[in-house]
Specification:
Metallo-beta-lactamase, Chain A; six-stranded mixed sheet; 14 strands
Length: 208
């Protein structure tokens, strides 16, 4: 099992998983980390999705930033989006790399495969991480799927139908044992969410 240490990431109860894939340290959506921590810990910042609170620590990280092309417009208007919620943000630096789906992207002995899962935002992705030569079973899903819930779809670029199709068509086929590491709340598994998540159960029932 891949060891991911979640660190608190701001006032929206976010958690930023930090993963050591020697020789690099990756952070998934660092949000509102204190600047000293961001500057100390990160080798690469890779975003699973593009919302304003996700980029809080990006200008301070001095680490390469990777993003999906479909979030280009939202990323460009980070300052305005923060102001809508009463926050002052620095404009994040331009992304260093756009995801080339599906990858893999190599980090040490690990590979990251990138799967497009829009709905919460247009460029949301699932980052499937695993040892090279194995099927990665750790899914860093951003705000697509949570333990017992799903991501918001009422913000700019969101769509409930698109989100549910992404969960059904992209995430569920990974199988019940796949570990889901969301951007908020505790880890879960595909199997647990398939069996108990009320949003998934309602969506499935409506399509029988």
């Amino acid at each position: 099992m891949l060891a991911a240490q979640p660190l608190p990431a701001g006032s929206f109860t976010g958690w930023a998983p930090v993963v050591a894939l020697p020789p690099l340290v990756l952070a998934f959506a660092p949000a509102e980390w204190p600047r000293w921590l961001v500057m100390w810990v990160l080798s690469v910042v890779i975003f699973a999705g593009c919302k304003w609170l996700t980029w809080w620590g990006a200008p301070a990280s001095r680490a390469p930033i990777w993003l999906h092309q479909d979030d280009r417009l939202i990323y460009a208007h980070a300052v305005e989006q923060g102001a809508m919620f009463g926050y002052e943000l620095e404009q994040p630096p331009p992304p260093d790399r756009w995801y080339d789906l599906p990858g893999p992207i190599g980090f040490g002995d690990y590979d990251v495969f990138v799967h497009h899962t829009p709905g919460h935002c247009p460029g949301n992705v699932c980052l499937q991480v695993g040892k090279r030569g194995t099927v990665g079973m750790d899914l860093f899903v951003g705000d697509t799927l949570f333990a017992g819930s799903i991501g918001r779809t009422d913000l700019p670029g969101g769509s409930y139908e698109v989100l549910m199709r992404a969960i059904t068509d992209v995430l569920l086929p990974f199988g019940d044992d796949a570990r889901v590491r969301p951007g908020h709340g505790p880890d879960t598994t595909i199997g647990r969410e398939r069996q108990t998540n009320p949003f998934l159960l309602e969506w499935a029932a409506a399509r029988r």
